[in-house]
Design goal:
2 domains, 213 residues, Outer Surface Protein A, domain 3, mainly beta, elongated, 55% strand, single chain, 14-stranded antiparallel β-sheet
Length: 213
């Protein structure tokens, strides 16, 4: 007996064609062809920066200093001790460089100075003290050099000098005193007396005038 399978075969071929067409559309679509790559591994992320509080010691076992380090560099507040365990210096670091307020002390714990640093250099207001606690001098630094208006005192706290500085040398108007009484006044240029200067006696009365070239 001979059977006619043509209609069935045609139906089967149609199904295969449609199926293959759908697969081809999928293979050609941008989403299907998009390759997914693994995310790169960051060596920075895998090696954390050390941030911890540390203490350093003398060979005798007594503490020498303490403070915070970040990535092996000193940062933030640090304190230093002498062999007797007394603080002799303290201040702030930024990336292993002195930055911000610092102060230093004598053996009797009296303050020697208090001032500001910027990138390892004196920069900003500074004040120095005598051992008896009286102010010795005070003024501003710019890049390690005395600048602007400074005042100096004797150990009794009396003003002895005030004047302008630029790049570490006297530059501009100044006055000198003895026992708090004005003794002289005039201008400095490049560290040397220039122009007209006025001088006074021990009672503060004018005594003479002198011109400097």
């Amino acid at each position: 007996m001979h059977y006619q399978h043509k209609p069935f075969i045609e139906l089967l071929l149609a199904i295969l064609v449609v199926s293959c067409g759908n697969n081809n559309d999928k293979n050609n679509s941008p989403e299907y062809n998009k390759k997914v790559y693994p995310a790169p591994i960051s060596t920075i992320d895998t090696v954390p920066i050390k941030d911890e509080y540390v203490k350093e010691y003398y060979s005798t076992g007594k503490i020498e200093s303490e403070g915070r380090i970040k990535g092996s560099r000193k940062t933030d507040y640090w304190r230093y001790y002498d062999q007797n365990g007394k603080i002799f210096k303290e201040g702030n670091y930024l990336n292993d460089v002195m930055n911000g307020w610092w102060q230093e002390f004598r053996n009797d714990s009296t303050c020697v100075y208090r001032g500001q640093y910027s990138n390892g250099k004196k920069h900003g207001y500074w004040i120095y003290f005598y051992p008896n606690g009286e102010i010795q001098k005070q003024g501003d630094f710019i890049n390690d050099n005395m600048s602007s208006w400074w005042k100096e005192y004797n150990e009794q706290g009396n003003l002895t000098y005030e004047g302008e500085y630029s790049n570490g040398i006297k530059e501009g108007y100044s006055k000198s005193y003895k026992n708090g009484i004005l003794q002289s006044e005039g201008k400095y240029i490049n560290g040397r007396q220039k122009g007209t200067w006025k001088y006074y006696d021990e009672n503060g009365k004018p005594s003479r005038i002198q011109d400097y070239d």
